[in-house]
Amino acid sequence: MVRGFNDKAAFGAGPAWFCIRAQLRHEHIAAAQLKMEEGIEVYLPRIRFKRSTRRGPVWFTEALFPNYLFARFEFGACARKLHHARGVHGIVHFGKQWPAIPDGVISELRRTIGAEQVHVMESQLEPGETVHVSGGAFHGLQAVVTRVMPAATRA
User: Fold this and answer.
1) How far is CA 89 from each of CA 16, 21, 57, 93, rounded to the nearest angstrom?
2) What is the pTM of this model?
3) How far apart are CA 16 and CA 40, in angstroms?
4) Which of 47, 55, 86, 98 fits 93 for a cystine, CB–CB 3.0-4.6 Å?
5) What is d(CA 21, CA 140) in angstroms, rounded to the nearest whole number?
6) Same domain assignment for residues 85 and 147
7) Which residues fall within 8 angstroms of residue 39, CB to CB, at 6 or more apart?
8) Using CA atoms in the order 34, 36, 38, 41, what is the torsion angle rounded to 10 degrees?
9) Residues 66 and 86 placed together within one structural domain of the fold
């Protein structure tokens, strides 16, 4: 058992989704390690996009949420082995609270990203372009791209 787990309702209440902090650019390694563990389901949403390089345009694939992935497990039974998995820094927590992510949030991400867990960005966004938000709290709103942020600063 991880010391400090305070949510008695979630503890022992069955598997739940948690946000896992991984090493930057090694999220896929942490995900592969966790997939080998019994009782842990892993979801690592990724994006694939084209970026200009000195060699010309090159396709890149990286985590949608740099440093993070999602895992569904029973906290009491799996938290210790998760903390010791290669590439994992720990379960995201706030003080002595380890918040579970509602199943609906993960389901919505899966619907948006797709079955392959990789969303291909066919065109590159440029500052000044108008976009329509197609999901989440701002669904249906129109927005203007002010800047395109690299993975290290994307949340």
Assistant:
1) 19, 5, 33, 12
2) 0.73
3) 10
4) 98
5) 31
6) no
7) 15, 73, 74, 77, 78
8) 50
9) yes
